[in-house]
Amino acid sequence: MPMDSSVKKLSDYPAIKKLAAALHQFNANEQGAAIMIGAGFSRSAAVHINKEIRMPLWDALSRRLLEKTSPDSPELNFSNPLRIAEEYRASFGSAALNDEIRTLVNNEVWATGVIYTSLLKLPWSEIMTTNWDTLLEQAAENIHSPYYTPVTKTSDLTWAESPRIVKLHGTIGITDTLIAAEEDYRKYPTNFAPFVNFVRQVFIEKELCLLGFSGDDPNFLQWTGWVRDQLKDHTRKIYLVGALNLSAAKRKYLESLNIAPIDLWSAVKHIDNTDLQHEEATKLFLRALQDEKRTKTLPHQWRPADLHPKNFSNKDHSRLYNDMEYASSLLSGQLEQLKYDRESYPGWLVCPPSLQWKLKTQLSHPSPSANNLAALDADCCAKLLYEIIWRRNTTFDYIEPWLAEECLTVANPDAPCAISKKQQLEICLALLKNSRWQDIDGDEAKTNAQQYTERLIHILEKHAQYLPDCQAELAYHRALMARDKLDFKAIENVVEDIIGEDPVWLLRQALFVMELGRYEEAKELVAQAYGKLRQNYRHDRYSVFTLSRLQWAYRLLRAYSWFDDSIEKLNPFIEGIYREWLCDPQVHINSIENKIKDEQEKQQESQNPIEPGFQQGHYKDNTNNRTFNSDTEVCLLLEGLTREVGMPLRVTGAVNVNMFANAVGDLLEVGGSGNCLADCVLAIRAAGSATSPIIAKQFSRIAIACLPVYVVKTLVEYIRSAIDYWTVQYESGKNAVVALAELIVLIEVLARLSVRLESELAKEVFILALSLGAKPKFQHHWLIPVIAHALQFSLEAISATEQATLVEQALAFPLPHECQGVTDRGWPNPVVDNVNSRDAYLRLAPRIHELIKAVGSTDVKSKSNALLRLLPLARKAHFLSVTEREQLAHAIWGDSTDQMKLPNTTLYLHVFLLLPSPDADKAEQLIRDSLYACDESVLLASQSEIRCYPSPEANAIRTLYSGMANAAINKETQLLPTPLQAQILFDNLVVWQSDDIDNDVAVDTRRDMVSNLANALAHAIVPALASEAKTLDRFKKLQLFLQLDGAKAALPGGIYFAGISEVTAMKVEKDIRTALLSGEADDVYFAVTALKQWTILAGADVNPLFISLYSRLVFTIESGRVVGLQYLLSAAKWLVDERLLSDEQVEGLGESVLRIFEEYSYNAIGTDTMKSVRASSVRADCARLTQALLQVSPDKVELTELLSEAKKDPLPEVRYALEEHIE
Predict the structure, then answer these.
(1) pLDDT given for residue 1 in this prediction
(2) With 0-12 CB in 10 A as exposed, 13-18 as middle and 19+ as buried, what is 158?
(3) 827-852: string of b/e by CB count within 10 Å (b at 16+)?
(4) How many C-alpha atoms does 787 have within 13 Å on its Cβ side?
C-alpha cells in the first residue's frame, strides 16, 4: 500500500523520515530506534470482546478511585492522578489498589488487533511500555521476525536478548507490584534501578519514540523528567507521536524539553471521533515507517533487467539467426541497460544462486556469436565484449575458444579501444582464469596453451598499475596453476605474494597456506580477514560488498576453529539481514549440492530408461528424453566459488572439516568437468585417505584403464613431484601430520596408476616404493599398506624380462625384524619370480646370506618373507651355490638329518618341497604325513561349534584343507595322500554336517571351511583313492556333500566315480552341464575344471558325453553369457589346444572372441558393474584363446589384430597374458 499523501504533507514528516532512517539503520552510523508504548496505544489498538468498548485511560482510573475515597465530593479533580492513587492506597491498601487496576483493565477481555502486528513487525531495537496489560507479549508470540523477548522483572534483563519488550510498570497476573501511585514513582529509581539504568542506556544510544502518550500523561511527565535530570545534554531527541493537536506554545514547550513532536492531527482532524482519530493516527504513523523502508531501494534488491522482447513475431525470431545486421542492432541497443546493471551490481563476492541464471542468460536474445559481433562497429563490439566477459566472470561461466579469441583483440591496453584500460585488463584476467580449462592433449596443444597463458600474463604484468590488486591476481593464478599440477614447491614460492587491498585476499592466501599444511598460520589469516571485514562493516552496514565477504570469512573461521567454542556469534543485526541480503554461504553450498543431486538423478534415469506401464506388456522408453548435461557447469560453479572465496575442499590440521570434498566425489561420479586430468587432480585433492570412496571410484582399475595415456603420464609426473615435496616435509618434522596424510593418498594413487605404465616407468615407481619403505620414518603403520600397493601394482606392470633386473633391489628390501617398531601385520614382501642367471647379479651374495640367516630366526613373519624371496632363486637351476643351498637347507630343517621337523612359517607345506633339504625323501614324508595323516580329533574339529571369531580352530582347519589342495595342484609337487590316507580322509570328511547357525559371521566361516574341504576332496583326496575304493556308496555320499553351502568346489571330484557305471557317468555329466549354466561364476569354474580333468582322465577314449559338454560350453560362449565367462574362455582355449573341437566350433569361437573382446572394452562398460570386475580377466583369456585359434587358423587377420591390440592393452594382466610366468 503506498504511503498516504496526507502524511507526506505533515510539517513533521521530516521527523518521521529521520526516525525511519534510524529504525531501519539506513546509515552506517545509525544505532537503531526504540519505542515506549503508553496507555493511549492500547486504547487505539486493543480489541474488546464487546467491540465497542475502548481500553480505559488514566482519567477513568482516577474517577474510579476518587469515587471510593471522596464519594460526597461534588466535583472530581483529576489534576494529579498519581496523588489520587496514593490517597486510595493510604485508605484501602496496596492490594485494593492493584485489584482496582485489574478490574478496570480486565486483561482477559482484550485481544490484540492489526495495529499490534504493524508495530511488532518493525525492527525496534527495544520496546518499552508502562502498560499493565499483556497484549504486547501476546501479539509478539505470533511475530517471528524480529523475535521479541518479554522482560517482566528486572532479573530478566540478565538473560533476555535484544530486542525485548520491557514491562517497566509491572504486569497484571505476573508481578506483585504495579506502578500507579505517587510514592511508586518516587521510589522507582531505587526499587527498580536496573530498569532505570536500562532506559537511561536506551535514551543515550537509540532514537526514542513515545507512542500512546499525551503531553499531560503522568508516565510521560515522570519518565521525560527523569531523563532530563539524569542525562542532561547527553540524551538524543525524543519523538512524541500522536494526534496531538499542539498549539504553538505547547510545541515550543515540548521542544524545550528536547522532545520532537510528530503531530498527525492535520491528517486525521476530519474524523469526528476522538478515539478513531488516535487509532487512525497510529496506523498512519506505523505505515509511514514501513513505507520509508519500501521506498528506499536497498542494494540487495538488485536484479538484472529482462532483455527478452515481450512481443516478438516468428518473422523477427527468424531474423535473429539469418540477419546479422538485425541481430547486431538488437545487441547494440541493449548496451546501456547492460552497463547500468553491471555498474549497479552491489558486489556480492559470489553471485547469489537465485540471480546467476538470470545474469548468465541476460544476453541471449540474440545470443552473441562471431557473426553478429562482426556486424558491430569496433566501439560497440569492445563494449559488448566487456559486458559479456563481466557476466561470464561473475557467474563462473566458461568462455568458449571463439569468444576468447574475440576478447583477446580488445584485452591489451597497448591497443586502445572504446573501453578503459582497467576494463581491458579485466578481460585479460578473465581469459587467464579461463585458461586453466584448456585441453593439453599432446605436446603441441601443451605448447600452445603455455604460450597463450604467458601472453596474457605479460599483458597483465606490463599494465598492472591500471588493475587493482593485479599482482595478487597473478600470484593467485600461479598458485592455482601450481595446485592443478600438485606442485607444492611452486605454491610455496608464490604464496607470500598473494596480498591485496581487499581483505578477501587473506582468505585466498590462507587457502594455499592450508594447502602447504600450515594450519595455524592459515587460521590466523582467516581471523585477520574476518577482523578487517567486521571493522569495515561497522562503518558501512548497507554494503553488500562487505557483508558478503564478512559472511564467507565467518564461515571459514568457524571451519578453521571447529572445536573452538570461543568464536563469537554473529552480530544480531547481521543475523537478522544476511539471508535477506543474499549473503548466506550455506545457500551457495546447498545450491551446488542440489545441482549435483539433480545430475545424479538424471544419470540414474539414463541408466534405467525403461518405465514399466501399468497395463500388461506396456512400457515407456525414455532413452531419447535426455536433458542437457550440465555437470560441467556445476564443476565450473564449484571451482569458481572455491577460487573466489579461498575455500579449501577440506580443512586439515588440528581439525579435519569436510567443506566440499564429498560434493566433489559426487560430482566426479556423474561426469566431472570433462577435463580428465583436472578431474583426477581434483579427486586427489578431495581424498581424505587412501580408502576414501573418491579414490576407489575415480581410480578404480577400469577407470584407470580408460584414462588417456598423456593423462596417466602427466599425473604420475605430478604425483612424484608432490611425493618428493611431502617426503622432505615429513622427514623434517614440518607439518608432519598433514604431510603423512598427503603421502598416503599420493602413494596410493601412484600405485594404482602404475599399472598403466610402460616397464621402464613402472620400474621407477617400484624402486621409489622400495626406497620409501626402507626409510625408518616411512615404516608407519598408515604408510605400510600404500607402499605395499605401490610395490605390488608397479611390479605387475613390469614385463617378466624387466622384472629380472630388479632382483637385487627387491631382495634388499628390509624384512620386518630389520625395521624398528614395525609390526608383522601387512608388511610388504616384494618377490620377483623371474630371475636371470646368477652372473647377472654381482652384489647378491651378502644379501642372500642375510636372508638365509633370517630363515633360521624365530621371527615367523621374517622367516616366511625371507623364504618367499629365496624361493625363485632356489627354483632357478644353478642359481644358488652349493654352499648357499646347504646353508638354506640347514636354516629350514635344522642341522640334524635324523631329527628333521617341519619349520614354523605361514607358508603352505608343499613349498618346502621346492626348497633345498638335507633329505628330500624324508622331507616329503614329513609333509605328506603332516597334511594327510590326520588323526580323528583334527577331522572332527572342522565340525565343532565355532565359539569365537576369528576362530583359531577354523583357521587351522582351513589352512590344512587348502594346504592339501595346493600341494596336489602344484605341477612341481603334485603331492597326494596314499590310497589308505585318502580313503580315511574321504570317509571322515564327506559326511561333514553343518549345525544350524543364525549368525552371519559363523555362516560365512562355515561356508569358507566347507569350500576349502571341498577343494581338498576334489584335487587331493578323491584322485588318490584306489580303484576299489571308488564305490557307488562313496559316490552317493559325495553327491550329498555337494548339496552343502560352499561344497560346489568338490564337483571335479565326481569325475573319478564316472567309471563305475553309465548311470554315474550321466550323473556327473548332468552336474557339470548344470554348473556350466549356473548363475554363480565359481560354479562355472568348478564345471570347466571338472570337464578338463575328466577329459585328461579318460585319455584317448572318446566319450559322447564329452562331445555334448564341449558343444554346450562353446554354445554358452556364443550365446553371449557373461557369468563365469573368463573360465569358459580359458576352457575353450584348452579345448582348442588339444584339438578337441570341430572346425565349425573353432570358427564360431573365432567370431565370438572378437565380439567379446570388443564388448569388454573398458570404455564400453561401467566402472561399478560386475562386467568391470571381470573385464580384464575376460580380455586376457580372449587373448589366450585367440593365440590358440591362430595356431589352428593362422590366416585370420581379425584375430591377429586382436592379439596385437591385446599386447598394447592398458592393463598388465592383458598385455602380458601371453607371457609364461613361473607358478
Answers:
(1) 45
(2) exposed
(3) bbbbbbbbbeebeebeebeebbeebb
(4) 27
1020 contacts: CB under 8 Å, gap ≥ 6: 931, 932, 964, 965, 967, 968, 975, 976, 977, 982
Please name the residue ranges forming H helices in 93-161: 94-105, 114-120, 135-140
Give me the DSSP letters along 986-1022. Answer: HHHHTT--------HHHHHHHHHHHHHHHHHIIIIIG
**Would you state the pLDDT for residue 610?**
63
Strands (E), 251-392: 259-263
pLDDT of residue 287: 93
Q: For the chain, what is the largest distance between any 2 Cα atoms, rounded to a whole number of angstroms?
A: 143
Give the bridge partners for 112, in sequence order.
none
Q: In this structure, what is the dihedral angle of CA atoms 67, 73, 78, 79, given to the nearest 10 degrees?
A: -150
The predicted model gives 1074-1086 an average pLDDT of: 91
Residue-level pLDDT at 236: 74
CA distances 468 to 347, 464, 472, 897, Å, are 15, 8, 9, 88
pTM of the predicted structure, to 2 decimals = 0.80
Give CA 812 to chain center in angstroms: 42
b/e per residue 592-602 (b: at least 16 CB within 10 A) = bbebbeebeeb
Which cell numbers hold the place of 7? 502524511
Backbone angles phi, psi at 1062, to 5 degrees: -65, -35
Q: For 1112-1128, how does the pLDDT look when each residue is reduced to its tens digit (9 = 90+)?
A: 999 999 998 889 999 99
Q: With b meaning 16 or more CB within 10 Å and e meaning fewer, what string describes 1024-1058?
A: bbeeebbeeebbebbbebbebebbbbbbbbbbbbb
| Integer Cα distance of 596 and 718 in angstroms | 28
In sequence order, the 6+-apart residues with CB closer than 8 A to the CB of 898 are none
Number of H helices, E strands in the chain: 58, 13
- Of 1020, 1016, 1106, 1094, whose CA–CA distance to 1057 is shortest? 1094
The reply to whether omega before 146 is within 30° of 0 (cis) is yes
Angle (deg, nearest 10), helices 470-484 and 504-515 = 30
Q: Which amino acid is at 944?
A: S
Q: What is the DSSP string of 84-97?
A: HHHHHHHHH-HHHH
How high is the pLDDT of residue 672?
85
Rounded to whole angstroms, the Cα distance separating 614 from 595 reads 31
Tracing cell 514491562 back to the chain, one arrives at 167
State the SS3 of 197-235: HHHHHHHHHCEEEEECCCCCCHHHHHHHHHHHHHHHHHC
Q: Which residues of 1000-1019 are buried (b: 16+ CB within 10 A; e: fewer)?
A: eebeebbbbbbbbbbbbbbb
Q: To which H or E segment does residue 164 belong?
A: strand 164-167
Q: How high is the pLDDT of residue 1120?
A: 87
Crossing angle of helices 759-774 and 709-732, rounded to 10°: 10
CA-CA distance, 968 to 987, in Å (whole number)? 19
Phi and psi for 83 in degrees, rounded to 5?
A: -65, -40
Query: Percentage of residues in the chain with pLDDT exceeding 70?
Result: 91
How many other CB atoms are there within 10 angstroms of residue 576's CB atom?
A: 16
Residues composing the chain: 1223
* Pairing status of strand 164-167 against strand 149-151: parallel
Q: How many CB atoms lie within 10 A of CB 712?
A: 22
Helix (H, G, I), strand (E, B) or coil at 467: coil
What does residue 684 show for φ and ψ, rounded to 5 degrees? -60, -45
pLDDT 10s digits, 884-938: 999 999 999 887 666 678 888 889 999 999 999 988 888 899 999 888 887 666 5
575 CB-side CA count, 13 A: 10
What average pLDDT does range 181-199 have in this prediction?
88
